[in-house]
Design goal:
six-stranded parallel β-sheet; two-stranded antiparallel sheet; elongated; 6 helices; single chain; Rossmann fold; alpha/beta; binds flavin mononucleotide; 218 residues; 10 strands
Length: 218
């Protein structure tokens, strides 16, 4: 009887020991997983911040909806906030044709361009696009997407394989179909969710832009 009791005792002690070992092991494993995931997040953030970054944008000064006649286009102001904060190169898509006209005329011209799928030419070029691994793409929403001249840019520059961060300024449509259209233009790029801001808010919106950039790890 004595022998049976002590055997049972030993077995239950062994069982408890192995349970506590198992618990300790799983705690260590979950700590290790958490550390690994935190490390990966930090590495991703450092890499994002270290990338050579380009901001490509189109923006139209002059008469604009809700803000009247403006010297600097709304999207340009957002592009400036981005570049001032992260210190990147920039390329402004400037159309060969002249869009300096009244807002009412411009919406007619833009609608016709969009309906016809026109690809208006733009000025200038980017030296060595390969040096950039992250490209912000920004523009106003014109009739539900980016202005047609930006699609000319998409045709001329292959950004597949890069991280693309779309942004828009608008007066109610948000990102509209801009992110989907960028994804369609660059099916093999890593296109992030995108960011949008009302055109009439950009002049007081620097903090919002910086908070967004911080959220991306810049
Ligand atoms: C031709 C044209 C079409 C527009 N279409 C839209 C639209 O579909 N949805 C919207 O929310 N805003 C629309 N807007 C408003 C602009 O997106 C908004 O004013 C933007 O901030 C202008 O940016 P920019 O000054 O950088 O060009 C349109 C403006 C213009 C001139």
């Amino acid at each position: 009887m004595k022998k049976r009791v002590s055997l049972l005792g030993i077995l239950s002690a062994l069982f408890c020991f192995s349970c506590s070992q198992g618990n300790a092991k799983s705690e260590i494993n979950s700590d290790e997983n958490k550390i690994n995931s935190d490390m990966n997040k930090i590495i991703t953030q450092i890499n994002t911040a270290k990338d050579k970054v380009l901001v490509v944008y189109f923006s139209q000064a002059g008469e604009q909806y809700s803000v009247g006649v403006i010297k600097e286009g709304n999207t340009k102001i957002v592009a400036d906030y981005i570049c001032n904060y992260i210190g990147c190169d920039r390329f402004e898509i400037k159309a060969e044709k002249n869009y300096n006209m009244s807002y009412n005329d411009l919406i007619k011209v833009a609608k016709e361009e969009a309906n016809k799928g026109e690809l208006p030419a733009f000025k200038g070029k980017i030296e060595n696009i390969d040096q950039y691994s992250t490209v912000f793409i920004g523009g106003p929403v014109w009739w539900g997407t980016y202005p047609q001249v930006m699609f000319t840019f998409f045709k001329e520059y292959d950004l597949n394989g890069k991280t693309i961060i779309p942004f828009t300024t608008h007066e109610g449509s948000g990102l509209a179909s801009c992110v989907e259209d960028v994804k369609e233009a660059y099916p093999n790029a890593n296109v992030l969710n995108g960011f949008s801001m009302y055109g009439h808010d950009v002049r007081t919106g620097e903090k919002k832009v910086i908070d967004w950039l911080k959220g991306l790890g810049f």
